[in-house]
């Protein structure tokens, strides 16, 4: 069968064994790995300023030119190594190219970190069997290590996601696989070079620091204590199955007061009260588009934008009341028949007592927990979506300057107004209704926390 691959890329990081893998591949006839071709600090290898006839300046001006030059080799299998901090302008071209084989090389991140620090300290980046390793030990830096792990993890997840959505697959290698002749043979055959027999790993490089970590790290005990803070299995991660939300620009309100104010509302928050306050300050423009929003911003230098956060329980109650008073009859029927919210007939909704409403509200909160966890067929409505997800949607067009909690409006609005060049915050125009006292029940507060745990953690809401 003809191989689907005409070229390859090795996704790796510093001190993962990528030099050894490159040496193994370069020993094969018709296979060439061009080093770290898109490393911002060099051209393929240290102290080189030119690669395949392309200079660093030419690569800087147009990286696609170098990519094309490296890959345009009929009858040959070319490739290069690509790390998370290499030129991002070629990433999409690599990932969208189904004829480019993706090799993903990984190593225990702590080993990579220590090895990298040792290499910087000794300036010994490769070692052959005739050379003597320079003895050294490093000082472990917790924040530095966690930053490295986070950056590499984000990149690897990005690569994995792009492979999934484009229907491609990668060849995953661990550091320990690089000296396994059977694995190397399998890799080369996967690349399509079945004409090559057994592939022996390169023998001109040897491990540089085969000592125990305790001998290589001066503050080993401190490192062990710090590593307890790291969650390698993401046990503390809150799963997020909500769909990404758009920026909702048409809902924004732009006020002409001072240098200009932009209100970016979260549905089922204090929107009417905030718009009333803005109207008391100056003319307000709504129904914006992304284009008209950009134009308005250009015309109002010094403008300020803000969002108001409402307590999740209060916001859920607002969404529930809207369902009863303004929601579609079809949605209410769906709640009755499918989603375990035992609403009475529409004709009897107005007859509900307060206790009846709270009982139904508890059922609605249970539905919200399932809905926000992706356990229902009903899409997540903007009125009850997590506020953190709504604000993430805003950020695709504009990030608010300030997030104000509803219970702090009178303290924070004067600061916002001052930043927008207003002498008077005009609080006399503000009409805010606090969360109803009857909602302060332990069971309801607990149900709201279960539904909106991400918001509680992200914004520090308390019961």
Automatic annotation (TrEMBL):
Gene3D superfamilies: P-loop containing nucleotide triphosphate hydrolases (3.40.50.300). InterPro entries: P-loop_NTPase. It comes from the Bacteria. This is Nodulation protein NodH.
């Amino acid at each position: 069968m003809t191989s689907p691959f005409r070229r390859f890329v090795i996704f790796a990081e510093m001190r993962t064994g990528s030099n050894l893998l490159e040496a193994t591949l370069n020993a094969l006839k018709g296979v060439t790995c061009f080093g770290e071709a898109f490393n911002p600090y060099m051209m393929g290898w240290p102290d080189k300023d030119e690669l395949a006839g392309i200079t660093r300046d030419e690569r800087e001006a147009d990286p696609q030119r170098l990519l094309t030059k490296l890959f345009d080799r009929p009858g040959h299998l070319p490739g290069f190594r690509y790390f998370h901090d290499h030129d991002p302008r070629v990433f999409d071209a690599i990932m969208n190219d189904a004829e480019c084989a993706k090799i993903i090389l990984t190593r225990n991140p702590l080993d990579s970190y220590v090895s990298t620090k040792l290499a910087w300290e000794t300036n010994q980046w490769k070692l052959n069997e005739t050379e003597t390793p320079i003895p050294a030990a490093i000082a472990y830096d917790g924040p530095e290590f966690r930053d490295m792990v986070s950056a590499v993890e984000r990149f690897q997840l990005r690569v994995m996601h792009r492979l999934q959505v484009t229907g491609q697959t990668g060849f995953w290698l661990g550091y320990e696989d690089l000296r396994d002749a059977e694995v190397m043979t399998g890799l080369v055959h996967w690349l399509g070079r079945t004409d090559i027999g057994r592939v022996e790993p390169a023998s001109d490089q040897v491990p540089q620091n085969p000592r125990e970590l305790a001998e290589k790290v001066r503050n080993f005990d401190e490192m062990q204590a710090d590593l307890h803070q790291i969650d390698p299995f993401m046990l503390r991660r809150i799963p997020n199955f909500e769909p990404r939300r758009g920026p909702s620009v048409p809902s924004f309100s732009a006020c002409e007061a001072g240098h200009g104010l932009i209100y970016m509302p979260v549905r089922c928050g204090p929107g009417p009260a905030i718009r009333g306050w803005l109207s008391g300050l100056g003319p307000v423009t709504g129904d914006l588009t992304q284009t008209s929003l950009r134009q308005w911003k250009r015309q109002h230098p010094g403008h300020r934008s803000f969002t108001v956060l409402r307590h999740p329980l209060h916001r859920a109650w607002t969404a529930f009341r809207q369902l009863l008073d303004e929601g579609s009859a079809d949605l209410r029927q769906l709640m009755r028949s499918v989603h375990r919210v035992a609403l009475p007939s529409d004709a009897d909704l107005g007859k509900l007592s307060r206790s009846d409403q709270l009982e139904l509200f508890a059922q609605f909160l249970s539905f919200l927990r399932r809905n926000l966890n992706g356990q229902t067929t009903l899409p997540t409505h903007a009125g009850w979506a997590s506020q953190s997800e709504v604000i993430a949607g805003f950020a695709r067009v504009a990030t608010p300057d300030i997030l104000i909690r509803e219970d702090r409006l009178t303290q924070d609005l004067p600061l916002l107004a001052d930043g927008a060049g207003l002498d008077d915050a005009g609080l006399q125009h503000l009409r805010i209704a606090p969360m109803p006292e009857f909602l302060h029940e332990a069971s309801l507060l607990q149900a709201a926390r279960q539904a909106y745990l991400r918001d509680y953690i992200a914004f520090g809401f308390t019961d």
